[in-house]
């Protein structure tokens, strides 16, 4: 685990909730970026709360956030894990304490509780339950796709 300032909220979370490793939290953040940048997910919407943090501004000058559903984030995590780890994706996620999509929801809501992620009023932990089965989506349906040969 990389050195983490002991006063950082994530360091405190990792000390209090030992179910998931630091890498699981980092992977959720990486997957969020992957979802937005590579998959084009995340609707822009006005921020529900005004904060001192600089946020992107809409044309009208209001703060905007990019939001995606729990199901969309789970799918992004699935695709990113397969891209990064291939057939080992399930084993890697399991080694971090992530055994099902409900665990992804627990990680997200832990991050929300410590102020590292935000949610809308409609978002719930249940949005992450049974989105896909790890054995099916990360192992059985895994396909090796050869890269196109450069001509």
Give the strand content. Answer: 5-15%
Low-confidence stretches: 47-64
Strand numbers in spatial order across the main sheet: 1-2
Query: Mind summarizing the main beta sheet?
Result: 2 strands, antiparallel
Relative helix content: 40-55%
Count of individual helical segments: 6
* Number of DSSP strand runs: 2
General form: globular
Mean pLDDT: 83
> Cα distance, first to last residue?
42 Å
Which structural class matches the secondary elements?
mainly alpha
Number of self-contained structural domains = 1
Order of helices and strands: HHEEHHHH
Rg: 17 Å
Explain the overall architecture.
The protein is mainly alpha-helical. The protein has one domain. The chain contains six helices and two strands, in the order ααββαααα. Strands 1-2 form a two-stranded antiparallel sheet. α2 packs across α3 and α3 crosses α4. The longest helix has 16 residues. The chain is globular. It starts with 8 loop residues before the first helix and ends in an 11-residue tail after the last helix.
List the helices and strands and how they pair.
Layout: H1 9-16, H2 22-37, E1 43-46, E2 64-67, H3 70-85, H4 89-95, H5 101-113, H6 134-140
Helix pairs in contact: 2-3, 3-4
């Amino acid at each position: 685990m990389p050195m983490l300032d002991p006063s950082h909220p994530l360091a405190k979370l990792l000390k209090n909730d030992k179910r998931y490793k630091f890498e699981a939290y980092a992977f959720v953040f990486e997957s969020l970026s992957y979802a937005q940048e590579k998959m084009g997910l995340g609707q822009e919407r006005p921020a529900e709360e005004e904060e001192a943090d600089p946020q992107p501004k809409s044309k009208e000058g209001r703060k905007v956030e990019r939001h995606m559903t729990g199901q969309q984030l789970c799918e992004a995590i699935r695709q990113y894990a397969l891209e990064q780890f291939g057939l080992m994706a399930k084993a890697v996620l399991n080694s971090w304490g992530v055994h099902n999509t409900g665990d992804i929801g627990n990680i997200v809501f832990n991050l929300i509780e410590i102020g590292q992620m935000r949610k809308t009023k409609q978002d719930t932990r249940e949005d992450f339950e049974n989105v896909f089965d790890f054995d099916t989506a990360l192992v059985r349906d895994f396909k090796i796709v050869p890269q196109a040969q450069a001509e």
